[in-house]
Amino acid sequence: MRTWPFTRGVHDLGSGLYGYVQPDGGWGWSNAGLISSRGETLLVDTLMGLDLTRDMLDAFKKVPGGERIDRLFNTHANPDHFLGNGLVEGAEIIATTRCRDDMHDYDPHGLAALRTNYMNMGDAGAFLFETMGRFDFGGIDAFTFPTTLFDGQMTLTVGDKTVELRDLGPAHTNSDTLAWVPEDRTVFTGDLIFNEGHPIMWAGPIENWIAACDHIVSLDPAIVVPGHGPITDVTAVKNLKAYFEYVRDETRKRFDAGMGWLETARDINMTEYRGWSDPERIVANVFSLYRHWGTQFTPDEARDLFGAMGRYHWETTRHAEGCQHDH
Ligand SMILES: [Zn+2]
Q1: Over 50: is that where the pLDDT of 327 sits?
Q2: Sign of CA dihedral 214, 209, 167, 10
């Protein structure tokens, strides 16, 4: 297994392909990619805000062809993958129709106002502040949306490379598209793959995400650039599939026994995944599974999902700190 250092910045994957990585890979710390061939470029995703995206574009200017971005492809509609779109001036921006539509769920002024609203939002606000408070959402008056839209799949030519875009969602979100470069056996997965971190299933169903993992394995990639975490290979894809199967089966047992969703999230033994970041995401994943299995959540419960994750996070970290004295 080839390993890549988990360091911030550009990673040269060879043959005009680059990953851009942001440790620690947790909430908001997303990865991006660049494909450069014969003077043409395709950027895969922007980052969580203008400052981070500006740093990335400056870093890419130092690689051959990277001073100009011809096209930008957004893998999905989470802010840590498209907030910086406005800095990629003049580029054609490509995404699925559903991805573009879902970007409208966010409002740049609402995001910027979080800075002052966190404290009025209870546990959800407190946990949002803890995870997102370090990001600067300012300076964006209006989002820059994709204008070249497709559904399902689309094949691009970048210089002399073929890039296949394929939507394997709904899984993480309603539309999750990867970019596959067959001749280099390299795939940029967006958030279909989290490496060394818990995935979060906003959409599901989980079977779709498991099928997406199988699809990525079937491509037989040599290099996998995940949406979060270190650059990797197919091992991370198999690990993620095993995670989903485990979480699905453990959740189902408790669902069938009539256990409530919050209790289920706390009851599942996650010891095997203790090395992965953001363990509180089990709460959101159990929530999504229950929802798919017919549980009706109140709007308040749905709104408080970040609060529920926060309480899990605070309880488990307090527990871990307390345990240090015992060992
Ligand atoms: Zn992300």
Answers
A1: no
A2: negative
Judge whether 223 and 184 are in contact, CB under 8 Å: yes
CB 248 within 8 A of CB 206: yes
User: In angstroms, rounded to a whole number, what is the distance separating the alpha carbons of residues 11 and 14?
Assistant: 9
270, 188, 199: which is closest to 226 by C-alpha?
Answer: 188
CA of 192 to the centre of ligand 1 (A): 9
Cα–ligand 1 centroid distance for 268 (angstroms): 25
With vertex at residue 262, the alpha carbon angle to CA 270 and CA 195, rounded to the nearest 5 degrees, is 35
Q: What is the Cα–Cα distance from 270 to 288, expressed in whole angstroms?
A: 18
Distance between CA atoms of residues 205 and 26, nearest Å: 22
Q: What pTM was estimated for this model as a whole?
A: 0.96
Of 20-29, 110-119, 178-187, 218-227, least confident by mean pLDDT is 110-119
For ligand 1, the distance from its centroid to the CA atom of residue 85, given in whole angstroms, is 15
How confident is the model over 17-45, as pLDDT tens digits? Answer: 999 999 999 999 999 999 999 999 999 99
Of 129, 135, 186, 195, which is closest to residue 163 (Cα–Cα)? 186
In whole numbers, what is the pLDDT of the chain averaged over residues?
95
Query: CB-based burial of residue 55 (10 Å sphere; 0-12 exposed, 13-18 middle, 19+ buried)?
Result: middle
For ligand 1, a single-atom ion, which residues have Cβ within 5 Å? 30, 78, 80, 191, 227
Average pLDDT over residues 90-107: 97
